[in-house]
């Protein structure tokens, strides 16, 4: 008779946070996760209130801050902006815009800068947009005005790229990033046209094929933004992906996964993110 309870305990599936913790071990670092199903409020997390460096995930809230100024009439999507050589981030940083126009002094529309910033994770475009809206403090204040407190936008890409240890100043908790995606998706904080414009950029974002979406069924809609630091003597300070996954039943799962201070290789770090997304998918897709 004593055997029966032991058998039933052994057959119980680990909770979602337990699954996250088991997957996270492979990262040889610290993993933060925040998951929320928007329609029913179900949630799960791991280290979800700890601070993690955002890296390029911060280009999502910066894009929201730009589009707020578009909605206010301060900027226009088709407005040309002179991109100066001084706007370009160092060669070690990712910037298709810099690579396309190495001499600078070219006019690029706000809409195209947003596309570079979000869909291509272009650091130079990000800094031009920050210059346009009035700097990192303006983006930071905007995020806080939405009620998102546990997030800080402090440094431009020009400062962050060559100074790896400084990136921790651009931080978020997983819960705060998930809350921002919820606010974006359900809070009507942007006009319909601005919302649809940014959502399309997030869905068609190029980077991150091996992260959140890697193990999900083909055709799954994932509106997301990645972030990745450099690797310094085997230490990678940030490997991130956060966004909104459309479930088969039409519900929406917001998920933010941050991997910090990891000594694992890129394939392993990305697989940790993919495995966590798949575990959450399997849990919420009944």
Automatic annotation (TrEMBL):
Q: What is its EC number?
A: 3.5.2.6
- State the reactions this protein catalyses: a beta-lactam + H2O = a substituted beta-amino acid
What class does this enzyme belong to in the EC scheme? hydrolase
Q: What residues does the Beta-lactamase class A catalytic domain cover?
A: 32-259
Claim: Oxidoreductase is one of the keywords in the record: no
Hydrolase as a keyword?
A: yes
Q: Which terms does the record give in the GO molecular function aspect?
A: beta-lactamase activity
Alphabetically sorted, this entry's keywords are:
Antibiotic resistance, Hydrolase
- One of the GO BP terms on file: beta-lactam antibiotic catabolic process
Q: What is the top-level taxon of the source organism?
A: Bacteria
- Identify the Pfam families for this entry: Beta-lactamase2
Protein family per UniProt: Belongs to the class-A beta-lactamase family.
Q: What PANTHER family does this protein map onto?
A: BETA-LACTAMASE, BETA-LACTAMASE-TYPE TRANSPEPTIDASE FOLD CONTAINING PROTEIN
- Entry-linked NCBIfam families: bla_class_A, SubclassA2
Return the protein name.
Beta-lactamase
